[in-house]
Amino acid sequence: MSMTVYLSGEIHTSWREEIIEGATKLGLDISFTSPVTDHDLSDEAGDHLGAEESKFWRDHKAAKINAIRTKTMIEFSDLVVIRFGDKYKQWNAAFDAGYCAALGKPYITLHAEDIIHPLKEVDSAAMAWAQSTEQVVEILRYTLS
User: Fold this and answer.
1) pTM for the predicted model, two decimal places
2) Which domains does the chain have, with CATH numbers?
3) What pLDDT sits at residue 1?
């Protein structure tokens, strides 16, 4: 059995690489996808459509262009892992979780214990809450075995 896993969420730590490395070491047949993780490139996604005087409209265009990738990747994935970090608020990750829930797409949240309360609704629709990348890899191993 093979699987496609979309890795959503914070872009400032190496959690994606840790999951990919762990799955690779176990020989799991998984294709991983993710959003654009270069913050500047993500912010510039709509700039080729013309300059904007307002930061709102620049962000609006970039968000729509980024949503093409995000929506497509989530829809074609078998499972989504959504990482919430402690440094920034990942509103986009919460939106991805809601989109998964609306689609009936299974997802795993990955975050520290100290943000359980603000993520209670997001976690309640998740298939699992993991606190480490090793736990995510173990879920992936179990799912594919």
Assistant:
1) 0.94
2) 3-35+69-144 (3.40.50.450)
3) 86
